[in-house]
Amino acid sequence: MKFKISKTKFKGPFNLKLTLDSDQCPSDIWCLKNGKYTTFIELKNNWIPIAVWEEKENLFFECKEDISEKLLYHFWSDYYLLRFYSEFASDKYISKAINFCQGLRLMRDWDINYRIIEAILTQNASVKQIRNMESNLRNFYGNQHTFNLEEIANANEKKIQKKCKVGYRAKYLISVARKILNNELNIEQIKEMDSTDARRLLTDIEGIGPKVADIILLYGFGKIDTFPMDVWLRRALTREYFKGEQTSDKKLREFALNYFGRHAGIAHLYMFYYERKIKSS
Predict the structure, then answer these.
(1) What is the pTM for the complete model shown?
(2) Percent of the chain scored above 90 by pLDDT?
(3) Where do the structural domains in the chain lie, given as residue ranges?
(4) Would you list the DSSP string of 199-239?
(5) What is the C-alpha to C-alpha distance for residues 2 and 51, in angstroms, rounded to an integer?
(6) Is CATH 3.30.310.20 the right assignment for the domain spanning 2-79?
(7) Spatial separation of the C-alpha atoms in residues 195 and 200, rounded to whole Å
(8) Residue pLDDT, tens place only, 221-271
């Protein structure tokens, strides 16, 4: 069946293509086929295909049932994007990124457990490497659409390394899967925490450093006052705000959180996309 969502449902602009081509973590489950973005979604314990595309003022999707609310959640429709644009219009660097990325929106994962596992794969890896590892893990320790925590938790470390090409991350994947299943990593508890306390709890877990924790909190829990630090962000912050002086990741991240405040997460995404698409060329 075909359904329509008016873009007036979004608080600010929304560009589907820009969002799903941005390489932000939740976009990894989507692929472009014949002009439509496709993926699978779990509904009533069944995985069903969906296809999404846009035409000017509307978003269209094909699915067995109406999942409008799920898509609006996924594409963070209730985030006031124009507030970010307005508050940083005088920042010459950010304003250039905003002009280049009009309509780019942060996404939220449907499955927090999926985000936790995939976030571990982002350690010291390129976008291409992350997607390869993720695909391998879904195929060998899942159902092609998602990961199976029980299978990962009971996996042999050397076998998961060999099959999925995840390297040293294997032991962390197994350990974290076990913690989730044993409720040692309490999802509901983290939801209620502020970002500082939640980050502290996550980084106490072996295999979860500051960047991985922020990825989990931003894309999994929707905590916007986070700033996942990677090579692109490090380069941009150093060049634009520290006059090229070598600065620790901790200081850069603290600056970003204080400077961007409630918009730190979206600033991170705009800088990440802008740096990769424009500055790197």
Answers:
(1) 0.93
(2) 92
(3) 2-79, 112-220
(4) HHHHHTSTT--HHHHHHIIIIIT---S-----HHHHHHHHH
(5) 9
(6) yes
(7) 8
(8) 999 999 999 999 999 999 999 999 999 999 999 999 999 999 999 999 999
